[in-house]
Amino acid sequence: MKQVISAVSVIVPDYDAAISFYVDRLGFDLIEDTPQSPTRRWVLVAPPNSRETRLLLAKADGPEQANHIGNQTGGRVFLFLSTDDFNRDHRRYLAAGVQFLEEPRQEPYGTVAVFSDPFGNKWDLIEPAVR
Questions:
Q1: Fold match between domain 1-69 and domain 73-131
Q2: pLDDT at residue 51 in the model
Q3: How far is it, in rounded angstroms, from Cα 108 to Cα 46?
Q4: Of 64, 66, 86, 130, which is least packed with CB atoms within 10 Å of its CB?
């Protein structure tokens, strides 16, 4: 039996603002944007050439969910974006206005820097070390 995590929900304040960041700035693919009701959509995005895990951009439904926007992990890094070329993607993201919270650093597991989406979610951009 094979199982995969097909999607991870990211609570956002607005569908279009989230699509703009993830698609226009990070270069993710818009996999699906299907209306479900007048106020709810099924929006999936994924990094280019990603075949399994997607992000479900879920608009906050009420104040309780809105309170968790940007803090779904209690302030820790939430998502990890692996790349085959850290320098290329770091330069491209900086040019697109992505906010990095630190300078790139070398760790035993690879080259990494933390960035934030406009909603406060922390991400690691990481090029894994060759083993």
A1: yes
A2: 86
A3: 27
A4: 130
Q: Is 128 exposed, middle or buried (0-12, 13-18, 19+ CB in 10 A)?
A: middle
CA distances from 120 to 39, 50, 78, 104 (A): 23, 23, 10, 19
3-class secondary structure, 31: strand
**33-58 pLDDT, tens per residue?**
999 999 999 999 999 989 889 999 99
Contact 97, 91 (CB under 8 A): no
Give percent of the chain above pLDDT 70.
100
Asked whether the beta carbons of 77 and 63 are under 8 A apart, the reply is: no
Class of domain 1-69: alpha beta
**Domain positions in the chain:** 1-69, 73-131
The class that CATH gives domain 73-131 is alpha beta
Mean per-residue pLDDT for 74-91? 96
